[in-house]
Design a protein that fits this description.
- The chain has about 260 residues and is α/β, with parallel strands linked by helices.
- It has one domain (about 5-255): Spore Coat Polysaccharide Biosynthesis Protein SpsA, Chain A (Alpha-Beta Complex), CATH 3.90.550.10.
- It has helices spanning about 20-25, 40-50, 65-70, 75, 90-100, 120-130, 140-145, 175-190, 195-200, 200-210, 215-225, 245-260, and strands spanning about 5-10, 35, 35-40, 55-60, 80-85, 105-110, 135-140, 155-160, 160-170, 230-235.
- The strands form 2 sheets. Strands 1, 4, 5, 6, 7, 8, 9 and 10 form an 8-stranded mixed sheet that branches. The chain has a two-stranded antiparallel sheet with strand order 2-3.
- β8 (about 155-160) and β9 form a beta hairpin.
- α5 runs antiparallel to α8.
- It comes from Sphingobium soli.
- This is Nucleotidyltransferase family protein.
Length: about 260
């Protein structure tokens, strides 16, 4: 399946100034230097170097910022990279691209701060997400703590463990539009978030709250409720959930890169 997966690299800016970007004196967070180069360069190269990835779409409100920066100008010139100007939210931007038929499925989505993204992570995720309409990569708490006990993450607690997002998402078909539309509602009005959860069914919601539901089972049931196949990919690499979100993350990532 050489070159059959499209990739979206999220490189947008939040409405409020990002602390890392402000401290580094750069226009947007993906230009913040990590281990000597803008953080976006490493995940971009990982995607372009992977045999299953064809086109890489960089979704951002500031494509000019990357073309103007000498260290990232190569992205603007690369034949397999194109820039798309994003809107106010990720979900709304994805839906607009799907509406305009500007996406070829399947699509792998990741973020510019996923600096440690590598071949092994992509191999596992693409391999296990194949055939799903929606797939989400997560890291179980024990996997991370065994290697990096100092790394602080936000954990979702279920009967099958605590889970943290790995910034890898799979959009396998146009049926995923239903899930992305729900995501858009949460983005637009986070106060409606509990209503979105309730839409998956009261038993699913109560089960999650009481930790009597597994994340794998809950995702599968939520997908069936939407008429699609949703899948959890439990990542083997603890580094999969370490993104460059805070200064302490950057310090840890640079130590990991130096050890490699």
């Amino acid at each position: 399946m050489t070159g059959t997966v499209s990739a979206i690299l999220l490189a947008g800016a939040r409405p409020i100034p990002d602390p890392l970007a402000k401290a580094a004196g750069v226009a947007v967070k993906p230009l913040v230097p990590v281990a000597g180069e803008p953080m976006i360069n490493r995940p971009a190269r990982a995607l372009l170097d992977h045999p299953t990835i064809g086109e890489v779409i960089i979704l951002t409100q500031r494509p000019d910022a990357y073309a103007a920066e000498p260290a990232t100008a190569w992205l603007a010139d690369h034949p397999r990279v194109r820039f798309e100007t994003g809107g106010q939210g990720i979900a709304s931007s994805l839906l607009a691209m799907m509406e305009a038929r500007a996406l070829a499925f399947p699509v792998l989505l990741t973020t510019a701060d996923h600096v440690l993204l590598d071949r092994a992570m992509l191999d596992q995720f693409v391999g296990e997400a194949q055939g799903a309409d929606i797939a989400v990569a997560m890291v179980e708490r024990a996997t991370l703590v065994a290697r990096y006990p100092q790394s602080r993450r936000t954990w979702l607690k279920f009967r099958d463990g605590g889970w943290s997002g790995a910034n890898l998402f799979w959009i396998g078909s146009d049926r995923a539009r239903r899930a992305i539309a729900l995501w858009q509602e949460v983005e637009q009005d986070r106060k409606k978030g509990w209503k979105i959860l309730a839409a998956f069914g009261p038993l699913a919601l109560i089960g999650a709250l009481l930790r009597i539901s597994t994340l794998r089972g809950g995702m599968a049931r939520a997908g069936r409720r939407l008429g699609l196949e949703a899948r959890l990919v439990a990542m083997a690499s603890p580094e999969a959930c370490i993104d460059a979100d805070k200064a302490e993350d950057v310090t840890l990532i640079e130590a990991i890169l130096a050890a490699r």
